Task: inverse folding
């Protein structure tokens, strides 16, 4: 079994900062990509940021310059530093990992709420 456990969500004022963390555990042979998605009420889940093994990093246009993703491959963790938060960043944030366990597929965390008050 593979588990992704997130932490770090909460309530913050606009302009503030939060850091989300996610740790993958279980029968993991290799992790290819780790990242964060978010889903706001009434909207589809969208990519926020992802980081692949080769170093390629992708960000949603809406968070470029404000959010930074980092990985610790030795610990199977990924973090998202979120600065200059805006009300429109309010959403449930999900950790994602594309990894090889018993087979290669996407795994998801349970989600953590981020609320930015204006």
Result:
């Amino acid at each position: 079994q593979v588990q992704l456990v997130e932490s770090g969500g909460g309530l913050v004022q606009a302009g503030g900062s939060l850091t989300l963390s996610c740790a993958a555990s279980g029968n993991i042979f290799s992790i290819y990509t780790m990242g964060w998605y978010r889903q706001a009420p009434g909207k589809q889940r969208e990519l926020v940021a992802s980081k692949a093994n080769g170093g390629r990093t992708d960000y949603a246009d809406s968070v470029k310059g404000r959010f930074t993703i980092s990985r610790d491959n030795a610990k199977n963790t990924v973090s998202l530093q979120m600065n200059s938060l805006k009300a429109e960043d309010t959403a449930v944030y999900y950790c994602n990992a594309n990894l090889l366990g018993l087979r290669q597929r996407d795994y998801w965390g349970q989600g953590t709420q981020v609320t930015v008050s204006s």
Summary: The CA atoms of residues 87 and 116 lie 5 Å apart. The radius of gyration is 14 Å. The chain has a mean pLDDT of 96.
